[in-house]
Here is the input.
Amino acid sequence: MDIEKNTIDYYLGLPYVAEVRRTEQGYFARVPELPGCMTEAPTFEELGPMIEDAMRSWIEVGLEDGDPIPEPREVGEFSGKVNLRMPRSLHRDLVRRAEAEGVSLNHYMTTALARSVGP
Here is the structure.
C-alpha cells in the first residue's frame, strides 16, 4: 500500500534521524532536517512519542502553509571527503600537533573536528 506523497503519514514514514542528548532536566531531541523541530522529555522512554508529536506538528503546519517539507538525507550523499584551504601557518601547526600525537594529519584533524561538533 503506497501512501500518497505530501501527506503527514508519508513524511512520518520516512527515516528521519533525531539527535538526542541528555540534559539536567531529562532529554532533548531535534530533527536536523526539520529546522526548529525539537522537544524535551523528563525520561528517555517518554522522548519517542514526544519526537513523533513534534514531527507531526511541524509537518502539519508546513503542509498547511504550503512550505516544502525536507526529506531525510541518505548517508550515501556524503563522501567523507572535504577540500579545505587554510593558512600555511595553521597547516604547519596541525602537522606538528599530529606528529607530536604520533598520528596522521588526517586522523588528527578528524578527531579535532569530531570533538568540536560533540556527540
